[in-house]
Amino acid sequence: MTRRRKIYEGKAKTLYEGPEPGTLIQHFKDDATAQNGKKHEIIDGKGVLNNRISEFVFNKLNNLGVPTHFLRRLNMREQLIKEVEIIPIEVVVRNIAAGSISKRLGLEQGTRLPRSIIEFYYKDDALGDPLISEEHITAFGWATPQELDDIMSLAVRVNDFLSGLFAGVGIQLVDFKIECGRQFEGDLMRIVVADEISPDTCRLWDAKTRKKLDKDVFREDLGDLADAYREVAQRLGILVETENALSTGPRLVE
Length: 254
Fold this sequence. Notes:
This protein has 6 helices and 14 strands. The chain is an alpha+beta fold. The chain has a domain at 85-206: D-amino Acid Aminotransferase, Chain A, domain 1, CATH 3.30.470.20. Strands 8, 9, 10, 11, 12, 13 and 14 form a 7-stranded antiparallel beta sheet that branches. A 5-stranded antiparallel beta sheet has the order 1-2-3-7-6, with helices on one face. Strand 1 and strand 2 (13-17) form a beta hairpin. The chain is globular, with a radius of gyration of 18 Å. The chain starts with 5 loop residues before the first strand and ends in a 19-residue tail after the last helix.
């Protein structure tokens, strides 16, 4: 068996060299982390669920003409993606007050914002991923003004799509995070959506009860994280309901 070359390992995913030039294999781990890695557990089946939910979302974005790094799923835990140059910015789109914006601005959690708000955070665990402005991004050369315009346009399109997708299955999209990268094709470069879109990167609440169906379940010790993610997958039609879906291996719709 050929040993794969590891390119990068993060808290929730590992990247390996792909089978063709310009590709990578993205492997989803079962690790759950919070508080910048201070809280850490292994949640059986989490990586499988995130892989399939992210595949589902990225396939739909690709079909809508939203450029992404996603090519195809390889197996239960891995996907083939295009190699991109990641821009060191986390792009957060907020529709409802929750998390840090509630603390910073004194907003009651659950308050609908006057309009969707886009925030930027500098990707640096050692610094705690600090909130930054557009001025920081362009002044330090993390992205050009044109690239920033493209990133914001992608964020708005993804928000519109995800809001409708989740509303259709009785889930409120509170907020979400995306990362973007530069994809080079010869002399051409374009900005694409990268990383993943899953309950790890979105705040998702049941539209009626406001039950949390995202990583806040782990952050706030609200119950079984895998059960919450499984419910999201079931509502989206990805996961077939079975009594022991994770203990026997999720029965995922092909």
